[in-house]
């Protein structure tokens, strides 16, 4: 997707939270401006987990091809930006409903990190990313404009895949999933 394609994104004018390196709010900007200028902003990444036949499994989402960056790459279950004035966990639950068509339960923050990734289309992600873990309470009904596929993956298989095929994942996914795997395996 080109920079011009992002101009067609209905969420491009949504106000997102700009932060400093300690996640203190410094202002707001449109989603478009934050990504066009590579401004550090608050984000969240949700990892949904279930108990499978062989142990814990993580829900991965493949980003829709029409996304303004990283289309077709695998990522954690859901990710987005909280809106100014809204609570992080409420925003995460809202985006899980919008992107995956299901409810998330027992969401909790397990870590955070800062990263920067520049894309071929001139846009950049520069995020203070809060990592959240929860579980899914009903059936998936993904929004095809957000998600092209989903799959449940066992934790050992996921760790091996991240090491073997990192280019199949979005820029933030290895860090998000590593933080989540440490948490999942410690319980």
Secondary structure topology:
Layout: H1 3-6, E1 15-19, E2 25-30, H2 31-37, E3 41-52, E4 55-63, E5 74-75, E6 78-80, H3 88-100, E7 104-118, E8 124-136, E9 147-154, H4 155-164, H5 173-185
Parallel strand pairs: 3-8
Antiparallel strand pairs: 1-2, 3-4, 3-6, 4-5, 4-9, 7-8
Summarize the structure in short.
The chain is of the alpha+beta class and 187 residues long. The protein is built from 5 helices and 9 strands.
Keywords:
single chain; 187 residues; alpha+beta; 7-stranded mixed β-sheet; 5 helices
String of helices and strands: HEEHEEEEHEEEHH
For the secondary structure, the number of strands is 9
Structural class: alpha+beta
End-to-end gap: 40 Å
- Using the CA coordinates, give the radius of gyration: 16 Å
Number of helices: 5
Percent of residues in β-strands:
35-45%
Main sheet characteristics: 7 strands, mixed
Shape: globular
What are the segments in which pLDDT stays under 50 over at least 5 consecutive residues?
none
Structural commentary:
Helix content is 25%, strand content 39%. It has helices at 3-6, 31-37, 88-100, 155-164, 173-185, and strands at 15-19, 25-30, 41-52, 55-63, 74-75, 78-80, 104-118, 124-136, 147-154. The strands form two sheets. Strands 3, 4, 5, 6, 7, 8 and 9 form a seven-stranded mixed sheet that branches. A two-stranded antiparallel ribbon has the order 1-2. Strand 3 (41-52) and strand 4 (55-63) form a beta hairpin. The protein is globular. The model has no long low-confidence stretch (mean pLDDT 92).
């Amino acid at each position: 997707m080109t920079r011009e394609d992002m101009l067609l994104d209905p969420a491009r004018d949504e106000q997102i939270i700009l932060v400093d390196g300690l996640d203190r709010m410094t202002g707001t900007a449109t989603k478009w401006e934050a990504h066009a200028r590579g401004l550090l902003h608050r984000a969240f990444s949700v990892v949904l987990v279930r108990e499978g036949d062989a142990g814990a499994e993580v829900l991965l989402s493949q980003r829709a091809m029409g996304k303004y960056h990283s289309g077709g790459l695998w990522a954690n279950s859901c990710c987005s930006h909280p809106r100014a004035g809204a609570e992080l966990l409420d925003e995460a639950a809202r985006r899980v409903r919008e992107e995956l068509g299901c409810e998330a339960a027992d969401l909790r923050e397990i870590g955070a990190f800062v990263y920067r990734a520049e894309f071929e289309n001139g846009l950049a992600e520069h995020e203070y990313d809060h990592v959240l873990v929860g579980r899914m309470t009903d059936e998936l009904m993904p929004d095809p404009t957000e998600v092209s596929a989903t799959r449940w993956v066992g934790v050992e298989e996921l760790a091996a895949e991240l090491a073997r095929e990192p280019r199949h994942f979005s820029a933030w996914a290895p860090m998000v999933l590593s933080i989540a795997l440490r948490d999942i395996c410690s319980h």
